Amino acid sequence: MASEESTTVVTSNTSSDSRSGRIDVVSLIVLVSYPKHYRIFAEKELVNEILPNASDSAFVWFGNYSAEKDEHPLVYMDVLSKMVRLGYQISASTGGGGNPAIGDNMSTHTSHYILIRKRD
User: Fold this and answer.
1) How far apart are CA 53 and CA 50, in angstroms?
2) In tens digits, what is the pLDDT along the chain, a chain of 120 residues?
3) Which domains does the chain have, with CATH numbers?
4) CA-to-CA distance for 38 and 65, rounded, in angstroms?
5) What whole-number distance in Å separates Cα of residue 66 and Cα of residue 55?
6) CB atoms closer than 10 angstroms to residue 49
7) 117 φ, ψ to 5°?
């Protein structure tokens, strides 16, 4: 992991119940230049499962987590690793220039991950 790179991660979570159980869907956006700058869009209970030491002040934008607002955030690769250990699978991923909708400079690289976890 590069210590001087920047990362913005956004995670968006949707949960649905089906006959076979619950499905958690998390969208994770990473500003790769800053490994501790990311956002997780998910239900707060899922974010707390992924990041049990997240500070309350880091929950912004309708309760979603912003690593930039946390005093001691993990780097995004550690977040991805933890999510995989919790049973999430990367369903899709993309990469490209910055996303001005979330305040990213177009000269930065953004990665987007869709992670899914099925529970019985």
Assistant:
1) 9
2) 343 444 444 444 455 544 568 899 888 778 777 778 888 888 888 889 999 999 999 998 777 889 999 999 999 999 999 999 999 999 988 877 656 666 655 566 778 888 999 987
3) 13-119 (3.30.1410.10)
4) 8
5) 10
6) 14
7) -135, 130
